[in-house]
Amino acid sequence: MNNMEKIAELRHSLAHYGLPPERPALALGEPRADAVLGGGLRPGALHEVFTQGWSAGGFAVLLALLAAQGQNKTKPLFWVRPDYEALEYGGLSPVGLLELGGDPRGLVMVRTRNAADALAAANDILTSSHVGALLLEVEGAPKCLDLVASRRLSFAAGISGVTVVMLRQGASQAPSSALTRWQVCSAPSPEDDDDWGNPLFDAQLIRHRLGGLGRFLMQWNPQHGCFDAPHHGAMAAAPFHRPAAPGQRRAWDSRAV
Questions:
Q1: Which residues pair with 183 in a beta bridge?
Q2: Which of 168, 166, 178 lies closest to 42, judged by CA?
Q3: Average pLDDT, whole number, for the chain?
Q4: Which residues contact 99 (CB under 8 A, 6 or more apart)?
Q5: How far apart are the first and last CA of the chain?
Q6: Which long-range contacts (CB under 8 A, 24 or more apart) does 99-102 make?
Q7: Radius of gyration (Cα) for the chain, nearest Å?
Q8: What torsion do the CA atoms of 237, 239, 241, 244 make, to the nearest 10 degrees?
Q9: Exposure class string for 126-143: b at 16+ Cβ within 10 A, else e
Q10: Bridge partners (DSSP) listed for residue 27
Q11: pLDDT at 15 > cutoff 50
Q12: Which residue(s) pair with 182 in the sheet?
């Protein structure tokens, strides 16, 4: 092997350093979002959703629900949230979950005293092979949720193959090892839309360690259990200077953004 071949091999290794193992992507259903993501959401990885307000936080719940059902419909979705979040944003309605296409019998709710206990519970859950997906709710910027804790979650998710969706409400963006980071707010339904009752989100993919970024108008389809692109309007396309095709990837260095 000559020097050029060694350099090429080293670059290939660095490009995949710290990334989760190759697993089939979970299609979200919105064509442009799936294209930018390289086919859909990567399982066995950590994904962050930043929101302001509980209505937008529903995006993280639906993302976790889709991930759990996409992996194996017989495996439960674990939802870990500190007591404060449960008191601040309210509890879950089983009827509401059914209307969104979920099954309350497949949901395991875990309540903890604080964010530190929530992180500990999440890491314990990720050691089990009987988990479909994990939704971790952490508000604000607790000291326990640092880059080390984020890397620990990413590593555990990669080993177990369990998709982790971390819901960050009222939080500022900070360094993390998340594979994707979303900034989401709720969007109003059009008056002439027959599906006006379905949740509609303005979702911005602001970080993606495997490729491009973009902004998408995504509507949840409870019948199909996935997101659709609404029939009206258009959102900004992925930035032209970032790869968006499924087969394209960019090299990633060890610095978390």
A1: 50, 204
A2: 178
A3: 81
A4: 222
A5: 35
A6: 99/222, 100/62, 100/65, 100/199, 100/220, 100/222, 101/65, 101/221, 101/222, 101/223, 101/224, 101/225, 102/65, 102/69, 102/77
A7: 18
A8: -60
A9: beeeebbbbbbbbbeebe
A10: none
A11: no
A12: 49, 205
Contacts of 23 (CB under 8 A, 6+ apart): 42, 43, 44, 161
What are the Cα distances from residue 198, in Å, to 66, 114, 212? 15, 32, 27
Written as one letter, the residue type at 103 is: D
Q: Which residues of 3-16 are buried (b: 16+ CB within 10 A; e: fewer)?
A: eeeeeeeeeeeeee
What torsion do the CA atoms of 4, 5, 11, 16 make, to the nearest 10 degrees? 170
Lookup: tokens for 144: 């326990």
- 113-137 pLDDT tens trace: 999 999 999 999 999 878 999 999 9
Q: Looking at the predicted structure, is the pLDDT value of residue 245 above 60?
A: no
CB 45 within 8 A of CB 220: no
Instruction: Tell me which H or E stretch contains 133.
Output: strand 133-137
Q: Give strand pairing partners of 75.
A: none
Give the predicted TM-score (pTM) of the model: 0.79
